[in-house]
Amino acid sequence: MSEPLGIFQDYLKRKGLKVTTQREFILHVFIRLTTPVTVDELYQEVVKLDPTISISTLYRTIKLIAGCGLASSEQTDEGAIHYKPVVEVRFVMVCECCGTETPFVNPYLDCIHNEASRQKGFELRRCHTVIYGICNNCRKREVAIPITSLTITA
């Protein structure tokens, strides 16, 4: 998978939002966490290192981090929302003609994996989704290959 910072920067640019040092710093702190945290718990970690970051900036940024697929959230029975980094989920498209692998992030696929895990009471530790097809370069060269399979493994 691409580096989390690059994924986050691309997402912000697509949304027409600024890539700020505070947003990057919050992401940096967040992706190094090993356990799920609430926004308040994350805030305590962030302000230890940079007391100029406000709680409202943190709330907005964690929503952006989740929006680009780098965080998942879960609500506890008490109503608290815990966020955890999603760094071990890998999505890749493989061209059947040239073999090019193109990693990508898709928050919708992340939601599907998380929901399926939740429904089955399964703790998702890592996931690898492979989509086979024909890349743009090969399609432009008009290389035709019959579609034979779609494999999604989790």
How far apart the termini lie comes to: 16 Å
Strand order of the largest sheet: 4-3-5-6
**For the CA atoms, what is the radius of gyration?**
18 Å
The CATH C-level class name of the largest domain: Mainly Alpha
Mean pLDDT across the residues is 84
Walkthrough of the structure:
The protein folds into 2 domains: 4-85, Winged helix-like DNA-binding domain superfamily/Winged helix DNA-binding domain (Arc Repressor Mutant, subunit A, Orthogonal Bundle); 89-153, Ferric-uptake regulator, C-terminal dimerisarion domain (Dna Ligase, domain 1, 2-Layer Sandwich). The chain contains 6 helices and 6 strands; from the N terminus they run ααααββββαβαβ. Helix content is 42%, strand content 19%. The model has no long low-confidence stretch (mean pLDDT 84). It has helices spanning 4-14, 21-31, 39-49, 55-67, 107-120, 136-140, and strands spanning 71-75, 81-85, 89-95, 101-104, 127-133, 152-153. The protein is globular, with a radius of gyration of 18 Å. The protein has a 4-stranded mixed β-sheet with strand order 4-3-5-6, with no helix packed on it.
